[in-house]
Amino acid sequence: xxxxxALIVLLIPMLIIAVIVKLTSPGSVLYKQERLGKxxxxxxxxxxxxxxxxxxxxxxxxxxxxxDERITPFGKFLRRTRMDELPQFAQILTGKMSLVGPRPExxxxxxxxxxxxxxxxxxxxxxxxxxxxxxxSGGYDLRPEEKVVYDIEYIKKRSLWLDLKCILLTVRIIFSxxxxxxxxxxxxxxxxxxVKLHLIKGNLNF
Length: 206
What we know:
Elements: H1 2-9, H2 11-24, E1 30-36, E2 42-48, H3 73-81, H4 89-93, E3 98-100, H5 107-113, E4 129-131, H6 133-136, H7 144-157, H8 160-176, H9 180-183, H10 191-201
Parallel strand pairs: 3-4
Antiparallel strand pairs: 1-2
Helix pairs in contact: 7-10
């Protein structure tokens, strides 16, 4: 019911965003793509398009941060404030996503990252989320090997209180117009130090 309420409340802002996306770059307003959800079940994400329509003419590519030339000028704002994710409330309503959890990724990226990041697929143990610990601790700027450590930390320690912290930080990021790296350094006690330690060892210690 919360996701339905959010869709109703955000209807006008979403319509405004849709108009701006349409007017500022050619292509569709919404971006749809197959991602993996809980237990590896495929589902379709729905977001506001933040990249140019021909962004993947050369195949699937991992996001290259704020300087990624595939992102439209308005798309940079959408990603920085997480507003490109607003249509995802529809997927929460259908039960394919949760409000908080690991960011859903494409099957090809799971296959690629699993070859050199042990346990990347452990993220599939829970439903993907609209926001999450990794999203508020670095977001789009995190490398895959950083992202998975935050996601595993979340899976191990998830609770209503941790979910609330992630939601509050997401709201703060939206209204500050700053990216997650500028806003937070990790919201779990010891998380930042833990990430550095795991990255040095190259071991997620499941």
